Amino acid sequence: MTASKSNTPPPPKWGPVDLSQPIGTILPPGMYDATVAEVNVLDSDEALRMIVTFEILTEDGEIVSPERSWLTLAAIPTSKAATQIREGLRNLIKLTRAADVEDGLTDHSEIAEALVGRKLRVKVTRSGAGINTINRVVAFEQRAA
Fold first, then answer.
1. Among candidate residues 76, 70, 75, the one with its CA nearest the CA of residue 41
2. DSSP letters along 17-78, please?
3. Mind listing the pLDDT tens digit for each residue in 105-132?
């Protein structure tokens, strides 16, 4: 009887860990001036989502991007995403008002384009611990003039 040969490749040799890589700044929870850096529309078979990336300029001059905000705008009724529509639309309304986007826009692509570059204030929270700690944007408001 012969031993069967495995086609599984050997594990990689990782070498030393690069500790010089930036791991990002974790902000203390609070309100921050921010800019809407990017808005992507994800139109899948199950749901229509808007993914918003914010940039915050820290007092040290570093640009920090908290976790992206996912807003579910529509979904097929039988999907898990359908339960996220109400919150997604509520947050989109709050976001467009805080970013001073004109009322009356209903096309998701136009709304996305109108948001990019807008200045506003965001409420940032923390979740996780240690190196897994992340910042999330949980609320929006207009920036003071």
1. 70
2. --TTS---PPPPSEEEEEEEEEEEEEE-SSEEEEEEEEEEE-TTS-EE-PPPEEEEEEE-TT
3. 999 999 999 999 999 999 999 998 877 8
Q: How far is CA 132 from the centre of its chain?
A: 16
pLDDT above 70 covers what percent of the chain?
Answer: 94
Q: Which two tokens stand for residue 62?
A: 């570093």
R_g (Cα) of the chain, nearest Å? 21
Of 116, 96, 123, 119, the C-alpha closest to 53 is 116
Total-model pTM = 0.81
